[in-house]
Design brief:
It is built from eleven helices and no strands. It is mostly helical and about 180 residues long.
Amino acid sequence: MDDGRMADALLLASIGGEDLWNKVQKRFMKKEPKPYMKVVAALMQKDLGSLVEGRPLASWRETLAMLCTYAPRGQWAELAQALAAKLAAAGQTAPATLCYICAGNADQATAMWCSSYKAGEGKRHSVELLQSVMEKALVMLKATGSRTTSPNLSTVVNEYVEMLVAQGQLSVAMK
């Protein structure tokens, strides 16, 4: 390895046992300057958390695709939520919402839809926007099999009912 003969080092390490293989592999990954090698290293070491943390936000689609492909079932939701939180912190609402949906987090997806609703409040009739958010949230809850109502959904339903009552549509609000 010191002479720069990485291919030979990897070949010899492959027959030298698992510990030697892992050491040589890690050293190779650190020494290799190509950007895709960080992705390969994260996948080989099964460290998808560092993949989520280290990938640029502009590559969120590729990161989500790698999570879909390589994340173990038990880590999938946690990793998708971590990616969603990273995107949400950067103000990328639509991608964050998609990642929360993928993670099955109905409450956070509803929160994202609510923030989009509040941003677009002057553009469309607010009852229509609020109804759209409520419908999406209810479908999400049904799809995830959740038996409890999320706090964000409760807030949306309350706002929707208040708007209907304020418009004199008491019979519709009671349903």
